Amino acid sequence: MGSALVIGGGGGIGAAVSRRIAADRDLILTHHSHRDRADALADELDAQERSVRAMRCDATDAGELETAFAAAEELGPAGGRRLDRRWLVLP
């Protein structure tokens, strides 16, 4: 199992990716400006007995990215390799 972090995971393609990943892993999904969509998606996925949390993250801010990665690591080990402060999730 493990955990995953989806940057921009609250809407559009990011939401689809979040739904797919949450089928197998606990998840942190981030948003920059659409908190309502990210929170609604986190609630939807959390109801499927997964630990899912939405949090604000500006992907251009290194400090906010580190905070998001730390939050995901608290859920458990990444379900892939972490490369250069980013995770590459492998199937």
Primary descriptors:
globular; 5 strands; 91 residues; three-stranded parallel β-sheet; two-stranded antiparallel sheet; alpha/beta; Rossmann fold
Number of strands: 5
CATH architecture: 3-Layer(aba) Sandwich
Shape by Cα distribution: globular
Strand content: 25-35%
Backbone structural class: alpha/beta
Tell me the helix content. 40-55%
Q: Helix and strand string, N-terminal first?
A: EHEHEHEE
User: Please, what is the CATH homologous superfamily?
Assistant: NAD(P)-binding Rossmann-like Domain
The CATH first-level class comes to: Alpha Beta
Main β-sheet, spatial strand arrangement: 1-2-3
Give the N-terminus to C-terminus distance in angstroms. 11 Å
The poorly predicted ranges are none
Main sheet, how many strands, which sense, barrel? 3 strands, parallel
**Separate helix tally:** 3
User: How much is the radius of gyration in Å?
Assistant: 12 Å
Q: How many separate domains?
A: 1
* CATH topology-level name: Rossmann fold
Mean pLDDT: 80
Question: Secondary structure elements and their pairing?
Answer:
Elements: E1 3-6, H1 12-22, E2 26-31, H2 35-46, E3 52-56, H3 62-75, E4 80-83, E5 86-89
Parallel strand pairs: 1-2, 2-3
Antiparallel strand pairs: 4-5
Give a brief rundown of this model.
With 91 residues, the chain is an alpha/beta fold. The protein has helices at 12-22, 35-46, 62-75; strands spanning 3-6, 26-31, 52-56, 80-83, 86-89.
